[in-house]
Design goal:
about 350 residues; Fructose-1,6-Bisphosphatase, Chain A, domain 1; eight-stranded mixed sheet; globular; binds 2,5-anhydro-1,6-di-O-phosphono-D-glucitol; binds manganese (II) ion
Length: about 350
Protein backbone atom coordinates (compact mmCIF):
# COMPACT_ATOMS: atom_id res chain seq x y z
CA UNK A 1 0.00 0.00 0.00
CA UNK A 2 1.24 3.48 -0.92
CA UNK A 3 1.93 5.60 2.16
CA UNK A 4 3.31 8.79 0.57
CA UNK A 5 0.90 10.87 -1.47
CA UNK A 6 0.60 14.54 -2.41
CA UNK A 7 -2.83 16.00 -1.76
CA UNK A 8 -4.09 18.92 -3.81
CA UNK A 9 -3.90 21.03 -0.65
CA UNK A 10 -0.19 20.24 -0.11
CA UNK A 11 0.60 20.84 -3.78
CA UNK A 12 -1.14 24.22 -3.94
CA UNK A 13 0.56 25.32 -0.72
CA UNK A 14 3.98 24.26 -2.05
CA UNK A 15 3.41 26.29 -5.20
CA UNK A 16 2.26 29.28 -3.19
CA UNK A 17 5.38 29.11 -0.97
CA UNK A 18 7.38 30.29 -3.99
CA UNK A 19 5.59 33.65 -3.73
CA UNK A 20 6.34 35.43 -0.45
CA UNK A 21 3.66 38.05 -1.21
CA UNK A 22 0.88 35.41 -1.58
CA UNK A 23 -1.90 35.71 1.01
CA UNK A 24 -3.33 32.22 0.56
CA UNK A 25 -6.61 33.56 -0.77
CA UNK A 26 -6.20 31.95 -4.21
CA UNK A 27 -5.16 28.64 -2.65
CA UNK A 28 -8.27 28.66 -0.50
CA UNK A 29 -10.42 29.54 -3.49
CA UNK A 30 -9.02 26.51 -5.32
CA UNK A 31 -9.92 24.27 -2.36
CA UNK A 32 -13.44 25.75 -2.40
CA UNK A 33 -13.73 24.69 -6.04
CA UNK A 34 -12.29 21.25 -5.23
CA UNK A 35 -14.93 20.89 -2.51
CA UNK A 36 -17.71 21.83 -4.96
CA UNK A 37 -16.28 19.27 -7.39
CA UNK A 38 -16.45 16.54 -4.75
CA UNK A 39 -20.08 17.36 -3.99
CA UNK A 40 -20.97 17.36 -7.70
CA UNK A 41 -19.02 14.11 -8.26
CA UNK A 42 -20.98 12.46 -5.45
CA UNK A 43 -24.29 13.61 -6.96
CA UNK A 44 -23.29 12.33 -10.42
CA UNK A 45 -22.22 8.94 -9.00
CA UNK A 46 -25.68 8.51 -7.47
CA UNK A 47 -27.56 10.10 -10.35
CA UNK A 48 -29.05 6.87 -11.70
CA UNK A 49 -30.26 5.91 -8.24
CA UNK A 50 -31.94 8.98 -6.90
CA UNK A 51 -33.99 10.16 -9.81
CA UNK A 52 -32.01 13.28 -10.58
CA UNK A 53 -31.31 12.49 -14.19
CA UNK A 54 -33.38 14.21 -16.82
CA UNK A 55 -34.51 17.65 -17.74
CA UNK A 56 -35.29 20.34 -15.23
CA UNK A 57 -38.19 21.55 -17.37
CA UNK A 58 -36.67 24.96 -17.95
CA UNK A 59 -34.24 26.46 -20.42
CA UNK A 60 -31.10 28.42 -19.59
CA UNK A 61 -30.23 31.86 -20.95
CA UNK A 62 -28.99 30.37 -24.21
CA UNK A 63 -32.33 28.62 -24.82
CA UNK A 64 -30.86 25.19 -24.04
CA UNK A 65 -32.74 22.62 -21.96
CA UNK A 66 -31.39 22.56 -18.43
CA UNK A 67 -30.73 19.16 -16.93
CA UNK A 68 -31.51 18.72 -13.21
CA UNK A 69 -27.81 18.20 -12.60
CA UNK A 70 -26.98 21.48 -14.43
CA UNK A 71 -29.02 23.26 -11.79
CA UNK A 72 -27.61 21.23 -8.91
CA UNK A 73 -24.01 21.81 -10.05
CA UNK A 74 -24.63 25.52 -10.56
CA UNK A 75 -26.16 25.95 -7.08
CA UNK A 76 -23.39 23.86 -5.50
CA UNK A 77 -20.60 26.01 -6.92
CA UNK A 78 -22.33 29.28 -6.06
CA UNK A 79 -22.99 28.08 -2.50
CA UNK A 80 -19.37 26.95 -2.05
CA UNK A 81 -18.03 30.34 -3.20
CA UNK A 82 -20.40 33.11 -2.23
CA UNK A 83 -19.81 33.36 1.52
CA UNK A 84 -16.06 32.76 1.59
CA UNK A 85 -14.91 36.37 1.38
CA UNK A 86 -12.61 35.39 -1.47
CA UNK A 87 -14.91 36.27 -4.38
CA UNK A 88 -16.51 39.54 -5.47
CA UNK A 89 -18.53 38.36 -8.46
CA UNK A 90 -19.30 35.18 -10.38
CA UNK A 91 -20.46 34.39 -13.92
CA UNK A 92 -22.10 31.11 -14.86
CA UNK A 93 -23.33 29.51 -18.06
CA UNK A 94 -26.63 28.93 -16.28
CA UNK A 95 -27.23 32.54 -15.15
CA UNK A 96 -28.05 35.34 -17.53
CA UNK A 97 -26.33 38.08 -15.56
CA UNK A 98 -23.25 38.34 -13.41
CA UNK A 99 -23.74 37.20 -9.81
CA UNK A 100 -22.26 39.66 -7.28
CA UNK A 101 -21.73 38.10 -3.83
CA UNK A 102 -24.74 38.70 -1.53
CA UNK A 103 -24.83 41.88 0.59
CA UNK A 104 -24.28 39.96 3.85
CA UNK A 105 -21.03 38.39 2.55
CA UNK A 106 -17.50 39.75 2.69
CA UNK A 107 -16.18 40.80 -0.71
CA UNK A 108 -12.98 39.15 -1.97
CA UNK A 109 -10.51 40.00 -4.68
CA UNK A 110 -11.37 37.33 -7.27
CA UNK A 111 -13.93 36.98 -10.05
CA UNK A 112 -14.86 33.39 -10.92
CA UNK A 113 -16.49 32.18 -14.13
CA UNK A 114 -17.75 28.65 -14.62
CA UNK A 115 -19.56 26.14 -16.76
CA UNK A 116 -21.02 24.12 -13.87
CA UNK A 117 -21.75 21.04 -15.93
CA UNK A 118 -20.22 20.68 -19.36
CA UNK A 119 -21.42 18.03 -21.78
CA UNK A 120 -24.67 17.62 -19.88
CA UNK A 121 -26.45 16.04 -22.85
CA UNK A 122 -24.24 13.01 -22.04
CA UNK A 123 -25.70 12.57 -18.57
CA UNK A 124 -28.63 10.36 -19.40
CA UNK A 125 -26.34 7.93 -21.22
CA UNK A 126 -23.81 7.71 -18.38
CA UNK A 127 -20.91 9.32 -20.27
CA UNK A 128 -18.27 11.73 -19.05
CA UNK A 129 -19.22 15.27 -18.09
CA UNK A 130 -17.20 18.04 -16.46
CA UNK A 131 -16.96 21.42 -14.75
CA UNK A 132 -14.82 24.26 -16.15
CA UNK A 133 -13.64 27.31 -14.16
CA UNK A 134 -11.70 30.50 -14.77
CA UNK A 135 -10.40 32.93 -12.13
CA UNK A 136 -9.51 36.60 -12.61
CA UNK A 137 -8.28 39.18 -10.14
CA UNK A 138 -10.88 41.92 -9.74
CA UNK A 139 -10.23 45.16 -11.59
CA UNK A 140 -13.10 47.24 -10.18
CA UNK A 141 -11.93 49.37 -7.29
CA UNK A 142 -14.69 49.14 -4.71
CA UNK A 143 -18.01 47.60 -3.72
CA UNK A 144 -19.28 44.30 -5.08
CA UNK A 145 -17.86 43.04 -8.36
CA UNK A 146 -18.95 44.42 -11.71
CA UNK A 147 -19.09 43.21 -15.33
CA UNK A 148 -15.58 44.62 -15.84
CA UNK A 149 -14.25 41.99 -13.43
CA UNK A 150 -15.50 39.11 -15.56
CA UNK A 151 -15.01 40.69 -19.02
CA UNK A 152 -11.23 40.27 -19.08
CA UNK A 153 -9.15 38.59 -21.78
CA UNK A 154 -7.95 35.07 -21.03
CA UNK A 155 -4.31 36.16 -20.76
CA UNK A 156 -5.29 37.90 -17.49
CA UNK A 157 -6.50 34.68 -15.83
CA UNK A 158 -4.73 33.92 -12.56
CA UNK A 159 -5.95 30.35 -12.59
CA UNK A 160 -8.15 28.03 -14.63
CA UNK A 161 -9.05 24.39 -14.67
CA UNK A 162 -11.58 21.69 -15.16
CA UNK A 163 -12.95 18.67 -13.39
CA UNK A 164 -13.82 15.55 -15.34
CA UNK A 165 -16.39 13.19 -13.85
CA UNK A 166 -15.33 10.09 -15.79
CA UNK A 167 -14.38 6.57 -14.80
CA UNK A 168 -12.53 8.44 -12.07
CA UNK A 169 -12.93 12.10 -11.10
CA UNK A 170 -9.98 14.25 -12.11
CA UNK A 171 -9.20 17.90 -11.49
CA UNK A 172 -6.67 19.64 -13.75
CA UNK A 173 -5.66 23.22 -13.00
CA UNK A 174 -3.03 25.83 -13.64
CA UNK A 175 -1.95 29.00 -11.93
CA UNK A 176 0.53 29.70 -14.72
CA UNK A 177 3.16 27.31 -13.36
CA UNK A 178 2.35 24.31 -15.52
CA UNK A 179 -0.84 22.25 -15.75
CA UNK A 180 -1.25 19.62 -13.06
CA UNK A 181 -3.76 16.80 -12.66
CA UNK A 182 -5.23 15.23 -9.53
CA UNK A 183 -7.36 12.12 -9.22
CA UNK A 184 -10.06 11.85 -6.56
CA UNK A 185 -9.51 8.90 -4.26
CA UNK A 186 -13.12 8.24 -3.25
CA UNK A 187 -12.08 6.11 -0.29
CA UNK A 188 -10.44 9.07 1.48
CA UNK A 189 -12.25 11.91 -0.30
CA UNK A 190 -9.04 13.64 -1.40
CA UNK A 191 -7.68 14.76 -4.77
CA UNK A 192 -4.19 13.22 -5.06
CA UNK A 193 -1.48 14.35 -7.46
CA UNK A 194 -1.48 11.92 -10.39
CA UNK A 195 -0.30 13.98 -13.40
CA UNK A 196 2.38 16.52 -12.44
CA UNK A 197 3.32 19.07 -15.14
CA UNK A 198 1.32 17.73 -18.07
CA UNK A 199 2.98 18.24 -21.46
CA UNK A 200 0.82 17.49 -24.49
CA UNK A 201 2.47 15.92 -27.57
CA UNK A 202 3.43 18.42 -30.30
CA UNK A 203 1.61 16.24 -32.84
CA UNK A 204 -1.41 14.24 -31.78
CA UNK A 205 -3.08 10.97 -32.66
CA UNK A 206 -6.63 12.24 -32.73
CA UNK A 207 -8.89 14.85 -34.25
CA UNK A 208 -12.17 15.64 -32.54
CA UNK A 209 -14.98 17.49 -34.25
CA UNK A 210 -18.73 17.13 -34.79
CA UNK A 211 -18.50 16.07 -38.40
CA UNK A 212 -22.26 16.10 -38.87
CA UNK A 213 -21.77 19.86 -39.37
CA UNK A 214 -19.53 19.28 -42.44
CA UNK A 215 -22.04 20.67 -44.94
CA UNK A 216 -22.45 23.85 -42.88
CA UNK A 217 -18.72 24.67 -42.69
CA UNK A 218 -16.94 26.98 -45.05
CA UNK A 219 -14.40 25.53 -47.48
CA UNK A 220 -11.39 26.30 -45.29
CA UNK A 221 -12.75 24.23 -42.38
CA UNK A 222 -13.80 21.43 -44.72
CA UNK A 223 -10.28 21.32 -46.19
CA UNK A 224 -8.68 21.32 -42.72
CA UNK A 225 -10.78 18.36 -41.55
CA UNK A 226 -10.14 16.46 -44.76
CA UNK A 227 -6.44 17.22 -44.24
CA UNK A 228 -6.55 15.73 -40.73
CA UNK A 229 -7.86 12.52 -42.26
CA UNK A 230 -5.04 12.54 -44.81
CA UNK A 231 -7.59 13.00 -47.61
CA UNK A 232 -5.89 15.90 -49.42
CA UNK A 233 -2.39 16.29 -50.80
CA UNK A 234 -1.53 19.17 -48.43
CA UNK A 235 -2.77 17.19 -45.38
CA UNK A 236 -0.98 15.56 -42.46
CA UNK A 237 -0.48 11.83 -41.80
CA UNK A 238 -4.01 10.54 -41.15
CA UNK A 239 -5.34 10.81 -37.63
CA UNK A 240 -7.90 8.75 -35.81
CA UNK A 241 -11.24 10.35 -34.89
CA UNK A 242 -12.65 10.59 -31.36
CA UNK A 243 -15.64 12.75 -30.38
CA UNK A 244 -17.90 12.47 -27.36
CA UNK A 245 -19.66 15.84 -27.47
CA UNK A 246 -18.36 16.87 -24.06
CA UNK A 247 -15.61 19.49 -24.32
CA UNK A 248 -13.99 18.48 -21.03
CA UNK A 249 -13.76 14.81 -22.01
CA UNK A 250 -12.72 15.50 -25.61
CA UNK A 251 -10.12 18.05 -24.52
CA UNK A 252 -8.76 15.89 -21.69
CA UNK A 253 -8.21 12.86 -23.93
CA UNK A 254 -6.35 14.98 -26.48
CA UNK A 255 -4.32 16.74 -23.79
CA UNK A 256 -2.98 13.44 -22.51
CA UNK A 257 -2.77 11.45 -25.77
CA UNK A 258 -2.23 14.35 -28.19
CA UNK A 259 -4.75 15.64 -30.69
CA UNK A 260 -6.75 18.60 -31.91
CA UNK A 261 -10.31 19.53 -30.98
CA UNK A 262 -12.24 21.97 -33.11
CA UNK A 263 -15.64 23.57 -32.91
CA UNK A 264 -15.62 26.00 -35.81
CA UNK A 265 -18.31 28.42 -36.82
CA UNK A 266 -20.88 27.12 -39.25
CA UNK A 267 -23.90 28.49 -41.06
CA UNK A 268 -26.08 27.69 -38.01
CA UNK A 269 -23.59 29.01 -35.41
CA UNK A 270 -21.81 31.92 -37.12
CA UNK A 271 -19.75 32.68 -33.98
CA UNK A 272 -19.13 29.03 -33.14
CA UNK A 273 -20.94 27.24 -30.31
CA UNK A 274 -18.59 27.31 -27.36
CA UNK A 275 -18.47 30.15 -24.88
CA UNK A 276 -15.29 32.23 -24.62
CA UNK A 277 -15.19 33.05 -20.93
CA UNK A 278 -16.00 29.76 -19.24
CA UNK A 279 -15.18 27.18 -21.93
CA UNK A 280 -12.57 28.34 -24.47
CA UNK A 281 -10.41 30.67 -22.33
CA UNK A 282 -9.80 28.37 -19.35
CA UNK A 283 -9.10 25.42 -21.66
CA UNK A 284 -6.73 27.63 -23.69
CA UNK A 285 -4.81 28.57 -20.51
CA UNK A 286 -4.41 24.86 -19.65
CA UNK A 287 -3.45 23.99 -23.25
CA UNK A 288 -0.74 26.65 -23.41
CA UNK A 289 0.63 25.64 -20.02
CA UNK A 290 0.91 22.09 -21.40
CA UNK A 291 2.79 23.45 -24.46
CA UNK A 292 -0.24 23.18 -26.72
CA UNK A 293 -2.13 26.09 -28.26
CA UNK A 294 -5.60 27.50 -28.91
CA UNK A 295 -6.94 29.83 -31.59
CA UNK A 296 -10.23 30.96 -33.09
CA UNK A 297 -8.59 30.49 -36.49
CA UNK A 298 -7.24 34.05 -36.60
CA UNK A 299 -6.45 35.08 -33.04
CA UNK A 300 -4.93 33.44 -30.00
CA UNK A 301 -7.90 32.65 -27.74
CA UNK A 302 -6.16 34.21 -24.71
CA UNK A 303 -5.84 37.56 -26.54
CA UNK A 304 -9.56 37.98 -27.33
CA UNK A 305 -11.08 40.87 -25.38
CA UNK A 306 -14.65 39.90 -24.48
CA UNK A 307 -17.59 42.26 -24.57
CA UNK A 308 -20.34 39.97 -23.24
CA UNK A 309 -20.59 37.31 -20.56
CA UNK A 310 -21.99 34.60 -22.82
CA UNK A 311 -19.93 35.47 -25.90
CA UNK A 312 -19.22 32.55 -28.23
CA UNK A 313 -16.08 31.82 -30.19
CA UNK A 314 -14.84 29.33 -32.76
CA UNK A 315 -12.21 27.12 -31.13
CA UNK A 316 -9.26 25.06 -32.40
CA UNK A 317 -7.27 23.68 -29.46
CA UNK A 318 -4.72 21.01 -28.63
CA UNK A 319 -1.35 19.82 -29.94
CA UNK A 320 0.62 22.78 -31.23
CA UNK A 321 1.47 21.51 -34.73
CA UNK A 322 -2.04 20.20 -35.36
CA UNK A 323 -3.66 23.47 -34.28
CA UNK A 324 -1.19 25.26 -36.59
CA UNK A 325 -2.12 22.98 -39.49
CA UNK A 326 -5.85 23.58 -39.01
CA UNK A 327 -5.50 27.37 -38.67
CA UNK A 328 -3.11 27.64 -41.66
CA UNK A 329 -5.41 25.55 -43.86
CA UNK A 330 -8.47 27.56 -42.91
CA UNK A 331 -6.68 30.82 -43.73
CA UNK A 332 -5.14 29.53 -46.97
CA UNK A 333 -8.29 27.96 -48.40
CA UNK A 334 -10.65 30.67 -47.18
CA UNK A 335 -8.53 33.44 -48.72
CA UNK A 336 -8.16 31.60 -52.04
CA UNK A 337 -11.94 31.10 -52.09
CA UNK A 338 -12.32 34.82 -51.50
CA UNK A 339 -9.91 35.69 -54.32
CA UNK A 340 -11.75 33.38 -56.72
CA UNK A 341 -15.11 34.75 -55.65
CA UNK A 342 -16.14 31.67 -53.66
CA UNK A 343 -18.55 32.06 -50.76
CA UNK A 344 -16.83 31.83 -47.40
CA UNK A 345 -17.33 33.27 -43.95
CA UNK A 346 -14.68 35.62 -42.51
CA UNK A 347 -13.20 33.77 -39.53
CA UNK A 348 -13.49 29.96 -39.61
P1 LIG B 1 -22.82 22.33 -22.26
O1 LIG B 1 -23.26 20.95 -21.89
O2 LIG B 1 -22.09 23.03 -21.14
O3 LIG B 1 -23.89 23.17 -22.89
O4 LIG B 1 -21.65 22.19 -23.36
C1 LIG B 1 -21.85 21.37 -24.47
C2 LIG B 1 -20.80 21.75 -25.47
C3 LIG B 1 -19.45 21.09 -25.27
O5 LIG B 1 -19.26 20.36 -24.12
C4 LIG B 1 -19.30 20.19 -26.47
O6 LIG B 1 -17.99 20.29 -26.94
C5 LIG B 1 -20.29 20.72 -27.47
O7 LIG B 1 -21.27 21.41 -26.75
C6 LIG B 1 -20.92 19.63 -28.27
O8 LIG B 1 -21.76 20.18 -29.21
P2 LIG B 1 -22.42 19.30 -30.38
O9 LIG B 1 -23.45 18.43 -29.71
O10 LIG B 1 -22.99 20.33 -31.30
O11 LIG B 1 -21.32 18.50 -31.02
MN1 LIG C 1 -20.13 23.46 -21.77
MN1 LIG D 1 -22.83 23.46 -19.17
Amino acid sequence: MQTSVTTIERFILDQEDRYPEATGELSNLLYDIALAAKIIAAAIRRAGLVNILGKQGAQNVQGEDQQKLDVLANETIKNCLKHTGRVCVMGSEEDEDIIPVPPESAVGKYAVLFDPLDGSSNLDVNSAVGTIFSIHRRVSMEGRGTAADVLQPGCQQVSAGYVMYGSSTMLVYTTGQGAHGFTLDPTIGEFLLSHERIITPRVGKYYSVNESNFGRWDRGVQAAVRGLKGDIAEGVPPKNSRYIGSLVADFHRNLIAGGVFLYPSDSKNPDGKLRLLYEASPMAFIAEQAEGSATDGMNRILDIVPDRLHQRTPLVIGSREDVGFVADTIRRVSSSARVSGGVTSPAL
